[in-house]
Amino acid sequence: MTGIKMVKLRKLSLPDFAFIDGSEHEKDNILDGRIVILHIPSASIIEIFDKEVPFLTEGVLAYNFSYVDQYGIKEPMIAALYYCATLDKDADREMIINEIMKPAAQWYCNYCTWEDKNVAKTL
Questions:
Q1: What pTM, to 2 d.p., does this model score?
Q2: Which of 42, 52, 64, 118 is deepest in the core (most CB within 10 A)?
Q3: Are 31 and 8 in contact (CB under 8 A)?
């Protein structure tokens, strides 16, 4: 059996959410410094903004939320839905907010808590 490599099968899965970072090899990476999240089950693309920052296009579905850091400081934020491949943003608005955007906001807050703990360890 030369030349044949046996591969052990394993069950692979994907998480519900992942960051989209863009490509570092591109000179003008338009995602650099932005917080863009992919909701994998629905193929939805969401961007997180500080509440004071965005100038959203009319009709963009947005969800307001806050992250409370380890010092109790409340940081108001907005999750903006750019695209949802599986649902209609107008007809399925409540479902998108409750099943995709709220969980995305919570997922991002969990990430921020994790990141804050990492920063605190280095101080």
A1: 0.85
A2: 42
A3: no
